[in-house]
Amino acid sequence: MSDRQMPVRSQDAWFDSTGFGAGFRANAPLILPALPFGFVLGVAINESVVVSNWAGWASCIVLFAGSAQLAALGALDDGAGIVVTVLTVWMINARHIMYSAALAGRFNSIPRPVRLLGSYVLMDQAFAVTEPIDTAKPEPYRVSFLLGAGAFAWTFWQTYVLAGIFLGNVLPESWSLDFAVPLMFLGLMMLAINNSPGVIAAIVGGLIAVIGADWSSGLGLLVGVIAGMVAGGLADVVTSKEAGLAKEAESAGTDR
Predict the structure, then answer these.
(1) Distances (CA, A) of 229 to 95, 99, 165
(2) Which of 23, 246, 235 lies closest to 146 in space, CA to CA?
(3) Residue 44: inside a domain
(4) Does 7 reside within a domain?
(5) Residue 205 pLDDT exceeds 90
(6) How far apart are CA 152 and CA 148, in angstroms?
(7) Same structural domain for residues 128 and 244?
(8) Which phi and psi (to 5°) does residue 112 adopt?
(9) Same structural domain for residues 143 and 222?
(10) pLDDT-based confidence at residue 107 (cuts at 50, 70, 90)
(11) Quick one: 164 and 72 in the same domain?
């Protein structure tokens, strides 16, 4: 038997401080503009007749999904049932399933608890800056980048919402912050729409959401999300099939 010892893997071998710092810095330009959105959610929690301030802020920690939480508050205050509210939250957050699927194969060697933590902080902005990372980079760098981006977002988001809860009442009513939510998601949409299926999903979902803006219990948004996902998925199937046929035709021409 050889006297040479096998290398022992350190418990923190998955962590890369350089990647964490890079993710922290990369997410700053996307998170800082979310300040008005955090205020909007905080004010909505403060004005809610169903949810108390502390319960609302605690739900930010558990849910960590501002758009879904804002929709849930609106639905509950409008008298929507728990089933409609839960379905609305689930459909709005369904995009995170696609985020996870897109990144799933990039952290195979990372311990499961770390991957679960990564899934918790995998919000829109964190995905937007993490997904383009070169897969040639080591997995510890990539997962640490995601955690850094998520840590920046989580810290500032909780602070923004808490400030909105306690400072929202002192803002003049003329300072309308209703623009914050669509403005933030418009910026994210511009980053995410980089192919025709994405364009189709955005157009279909947006049109239906606008048409159903006056529907009760926020159903217009729910139907718009579902329709956008279906339209984008179908468009992706069609474009993938066309790309496959074009590749086969190119291969056939090359073999001649």
Answers:
(1) 9, 13, 33
(2) 23
(3) yes
(4) no
(5) no
(6) 6
(7) no
(8) -55, -45
(9) no
(10) confident
(11) yes
Residue 117's identity, in one-letter code, is: L
Which amino acid appears at position 72 of this protein?
Answer: A
53 and 168 share one domain: yes
Percent of the chain with pLDDT over 70: 76
Tens-digit pLDDT profile for residues 132-187? 888 888 999 999 999 999 999 898 888 888 988 887 666 655 555 554 555 455 55
Tokens found for residue 131 = 């997904």
State how many domains the chain has. 2
If one counts every other C-beta atom within 10 angstroms of the C-beta of residue 64, the result is: 19
Is 96 in the same domain as 223?
Answer: no
At residue 2, φ and ψ (nearest 5 deg) are -75, 140
Report the interhelical angle of 35-47 vs 66-77 (nearest 10°).
Answer: 30
The reported pTM is: 0.65
Q: Is residue 182 part of a domain?
A: no
Angstrom distance (rounded) from CA 110 to CA 256 = 46
- Residue 161 is encoded by which pair of tokens? 């919402």
Q: What is the rounded average pLDDT for all residues in the chain?
A: 77
Residue 214's domain spans which residues? 193-249
Is residue 179 one of the residues assigned to a domain? no
Q: Angle at which helices 82-93 and 66-77 pack, to 10 degrees?
A: 160
